[in-house]
Amino acid sequence: TKHFPVRRRLRGLLSRTRLTVHAVDDVDLTLRRGRVTALVGESGSGKSTVARLLAQLQPLTAGTVRLHGTPVTVRGGRPFRAYVRRVQMIFQDPFASLNPVHTVRYHLTRALRVHGNAGRSSADLEAALAGLLDRVSLTPAERYLDKFPHELSGGQRQRVAIARALGADPEVLLADEPVSMLDVSIRLGVLNLLRDLKERLRLAVLYITHDIASARYFADETLVMYAGRLVEGGDSETVTQHPAHPYTRLLIESAPDPDRITGATRAGDGERGGGEPPSLIRPPAGCRFHPRCPAAMPRCGTDLPPRLAVGDRPGHWAACWLYDPAEATS
Ligand code: SF4
Ligand code: MG
Fold it and tell me: How far apart are CA 321 and CA 259, in angstroms?
């Protein structure tokens, strides 16, 4: 759970009332090695905040992050250091995440050194650098090592950012919209690379996206987030082909082209049909989707739906009263 305090401007004056943004509430998820988990939702749904909480870039308001069952509590303590090494993040904009005045060699060397993976000799270092670039299919290494970020294409920059993350020898990659700023023609290549790395290095990957069609293509498991809460989860095939939650159905209906992984452009992110996501300062009571939901019942406006099993596909759930067994019999 993550709540941010904010102050609201009232007629130009800073109000004294402290308001709270309920950015993430009770999000419970498990990443597993060798598995891609997609976290899908509109912009403003809290999915990037989930990534930052998992990366320990921000403290939680409530709850716990665990690695192999060990809670990561004290910042700077030993579990914390082990954790930040094992859990690496890839950002949406590789141009912003790479320093323009430094070469590929500098970025990768630094990552290797910080995490103690640079070896002892300069030959070790060169081998490690070549190994990293080989893993992201930038070969031969000499062609790329002394280039600056602006000398690379967007796809090559994102590959360098991925190589840098791999320099820590991570178990978990948190990828926040890793292809949404890339040309459509090269998105598939980067997603295929991530999928390949997941297999070869047995990485646990969290793939954050607003493009549910790409989740079907790329992720093993899909979780759908709405207004700070998870609303549906299951294996990707089930969630995308047999969506249960009315919000997931809306996402799929409004996806521009479900057969391609192009998804919405940045401009289209957030422009979904059927109304707007609610304010997270005063989120709706009960089910947060009820003001937009075509199937809303009276209890939806007051009672928060728990995770309920859907159909006969194991692991498929929705936080929606439609799947309350009592609803079927009443
Ligand atoms: Fe719609 Fe009610 Fe289900 Fe929420 S709980 S998605 S309002 S039917
Ligand atoms: Mg985001």
Answer: 30
The dihedral built from the CA positions of residue 81, 98, 162 and 238, taken in this order, carries a sign that is: positive
What pLDDT digit, counting tens, does each position of 85-127 carry?
899 999 988 778 899 999 999 999 999 998 889 999 999 999 9
Please check whether residue 226 is in contact with residue 293, taking contact to mean a CB–CB distance below 8 angstroms. Answer: no
CA of 76 to the centre of ligand 1 (A): 42
- Asked if residues 288 and 228 have their Cβ atoms less than 8 Å apart, the reply is yes
* Residue 76: Cβ-neighbour burial (10 angstroms; 0-12, 13-18, 19+): exposed
Q: Which ligand lies nearest the alpha carbon of 47? A: 2
DSSP 313: S
Give, using CA atoms, the residue closest to atom 8 of ligand 1.
296
> Which CATH code is given to the segment(s) 2-316?
3.40.50.300
| Nearest ligand to residue 178 Cα | 2
The single-letter code of the amino acid at 151 is: E
Domain boundaries, the chain: 2-316
Q: What is the pTM of this model?
A: 0.90
